[in-house]
Amino acid sequence: MLFRQLEYFVAVAREKHFARAAEACYVSQPALSAAIARLERELNVTLINRGHNFEGLTPEGERLVVWAQRILAEHDAFKAEAVAMKSGIAGTLRLGTGPTVSTTAGLPVAAFCALHPLAKVRVCSRLASTELRRQLRDFELDAAIAHFDPADTEGLEVVPLYEEQYVLLVAGDQLAPGIRAIPWTEAARLPLALLSPDMRFRQFIDGAFRSRGIVAAPQVETDSVASLYAHVATGAWASIVPHTWLRAIPDTDGTRSVRLTEPDATAQISVAIRAGTPASIAALSFLKVAADLLLDQVFEPAVAGAMTA
Q: What whole-number distance in Å separates Cα of residue 123 and Cα of residue 102?
């Protein structure tokens, strides 16, 4: 059994398509199919249901793909640790974040790269929380920064980073200049542009409104952080954003931030890696670097400054 055969098999299981798997592995489709057929002969099992196209994994294939992912991850971890012992952590750290958390990832990434100048980081920033957890468990990501429900952390090592707060972002004459805080009930009366309902941050916002007996009715919904800011900048809409955005995207002459109260809603943002073995040395280092930044203290001055500006 060769690592290459396992790589090809995992690629087919992931892509659910022989041609796409071959393309991802930089081989021809006949070469990929032949390698998987040899693997099946060696194991004396059928791994893939075949018709004219890929028709899913057999029960044996479903079990083997879990082992194959683990074996390949252990192989990669061994190579990475051997390199790290000689010259320091190198290679690429695969980091996943949700869209609203992507603006905060730069701080731990900068600290990690300063500590390990030979390392690279690839950030995937448009992943839902469920997809982040799946990719961590399936060895497709090394680390993730997001909100993790306690019930959904099986197989993960999760370390809290900061408490996410919520602020109202306004422009133009929607609020009097001297207002520094308003309750959620008043925010609901403003014309709103919000992130789309499928996004975890929007679900927290809806929950805060529901706690006051209100259903949010935004006129504009978007899945883009940049688009949200652009709509607010017109002065036609207000929005609700994470307080961490105020550091990455400071208030301009046309926009300002107002604290939301009653309730003072928050959500825990954490960094997570796979628990147990194989332990990626880069992921372990990133976890420690991120936890040591004390991000709650980093972000609070940005909010205080915005509220008193």
A: 8
